Amino acid sequence: MNIIKNLDSPSIFIGKQGNGIISFGSGQPDLPPPKEAIEGIDIRHDLRYGLIQGEVVLREALSKEYPTSTADNFVITNGASEALDLIFRAIGKGKVLLPKPYYYSYPPIIKLAGMEPVFLDLKEGRIDLSDFNKKVKDCKAVLINSPSNPTGRVEAIETLKEIESLTRKMNIYIISDEVYKDLIYERENYHIKGEHVITVNSFSKTYAMCGVRVGYLWSSDQSIVNKTIAIKTHTSMNTNLVAQDMALGAMNAPKEYIINQKKIWRQRRDSIYHGLCELGLDLWKPEGAFYVLPKVKKPKELVWKLYNDFKVITYLGEWFGAPDRIRLSYALDQNEIEEGLSRIKQALKEL
Ligand SMILES: Cc1ncc(COP(=O)(O)O)c(C=O)c1O
Question: In this structure, what is the dihedral angle of CA atoms 133, 135, 137, 139, given to the nearest 10 degrees?
């Protein structure tokens, strides 16, 4: 059964494009970055080693977005991915509570740091506080991702506040992965706060700059910031300086950039959500990010058939801890979404 052999991980699909392929795979925005990200880069100035913590100008610009913080509270990283890796290694041993389905890199990052993932059951795609209360007691950290990849769900502000205050009282860290914070369709982001909170963010999604690899972590706990800098000193060293210049440029883009992107994502959300409902699939309506996670019969066979016979890439729910589902990213053009939906309709008929 080469189906099973070939679908071990998303790496077989990441970066695949062209040749008539329609990819609902990677969460990579197809929209252009702001022009400010590309203008005025002085490459010659960037051919040196930089500060491990990140360029001061970028950290100062970020500190304006986080009330009461300073440039010292940030570490600029190779995407949110490196921020997550540094944080768990800095925290060290213990259990990490996280919702399941999860972003597929979370369990490996946690395990590589020597920590143990513990999974929360979701109710209608959102955190069930009674399950949270039961499982949080012997954990060292909680990982929150709202809006979520892969569910597209956004946690209620009351839930986030409850988690914020409970973990504060119990002296448990919250790692809040907010890479989709600018992609919430119905309200503003609620930024979880406190001495025990470490926020992770990225320029990949908000500014459509995935390949540039700039993200950051934020914490008001200076000991966490210092530990992550100490690890980064001996691993990746400074984050690419050209990329940091681009990130700073992107932050100078007018606010309309983000507002306009959000409008486009909402239209695409409506199109794919209604399209999949019409095909009879059971799925949660995304409230943020750009993913849907429908339930399907025979997910492995479907993902494989879609790829081999219809040149459509989708991801197996199993990679996200949801074996009865498949995940689709709608970070692609409206025409491609429509063509992809019609190929999915055909594949479902033939399965
Ligand atoms: C929830 C979540 N966190 C982190 C990342 C990694 O982002 P970055 O490109 O900044 O490393 C992703 C990428 O898809 C993601 O979905």
Answer: -130
